[in-house]
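Reopening this ticket.

The earlier resolution said the output was attached, but the attachment link was broken on my side. Pasting everything inline this time so it's all in one place.
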Amino acid sequence: MTALLEVKNLKKYFTVKGGVLHAVDGISFTLDKGKTLGVVGESGCGKTTLGRTILHLLDITSGQIFFEGKDITRPNKKELRALREDMQIIFQDPYSSLNPRKTVSETIMEPLIMQGKMTKAEMWEETKKLMDTVGLAERLYNAYPHELDGGRRQRVGVARALALKPKFIVCDEPVSALDVSIQAQIINLLLDLQEELGIAYMFVTHDLSVVKYISDDIMVMYLGQMVEKASSSELFQKPLHPYTQALLSAILEPDIHKKTKPIIVQGELTSPINPKPGCRFMNRCRFAEPKKCREPQVLEELYPNHFVACCRSKEIN
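Inline output:
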């Protein structure tokens, strides 16, 4: 069966003062219909840039993107307009991503107007249906963003993303700006919509507790590169890369009787500008061996569907 989305050796570089910043550097993965790929890593690792490059909100430096088996790496304007119906994004900040001069209904209806396939009456009915789907009361139809709390604003963003019935949505840290109780509501809403509509998600986050709950597979990024990828359960049970192990050790343990010792990552952060070949985590890794780690790191499948890019992963696990 053809994967819904296939990304091959995707790269996105930015020319900056001092050289070339490798924001996304050789990422490859596949995503099936109705599944969720979690993308985790600390700030600046390239998670958001990856999602926006896949959606063509940023130009691709090199690599290939396939959607439903069709090459969409460099679409023309007509092809890109059609892609916008199938691929959408939910932004991180629910307030800044909404036009303060547009009401809830105008925001949700905007994609339908641009699509141009419905009458005004049909758009009105579809907007009400979308509001009901995401749990927005009809009384908020003419409300403005500043009149809503964070949870309702994010629901508006979800409804807007759903308006054209997409098959794939990039969720760019959609709950990071929300209270914990509201986070749970939005996550459960996304899961319910996935079950009902068969939508595939790429869920970008730095919250490991959230990504474990919502993801089928998880990809760990470090300075633009994939360092580990596995199923959600496998990654949490058996993290192989030293960076992944450090990330998971930082999760708070709810059981006060269970003692956990966080792995403290020390050392200087490697610059993503003109990076040298080799492991980019080497300067901060407690297992690093300079001779081995200066060689280019290759993503290997150590266990079924469990990939890791670390020259010492076989020795330390």
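Reporter confirms the inline version is readable. The longest helix spans residues 180-197. The first strand starts at residue 5 and ends at 16.
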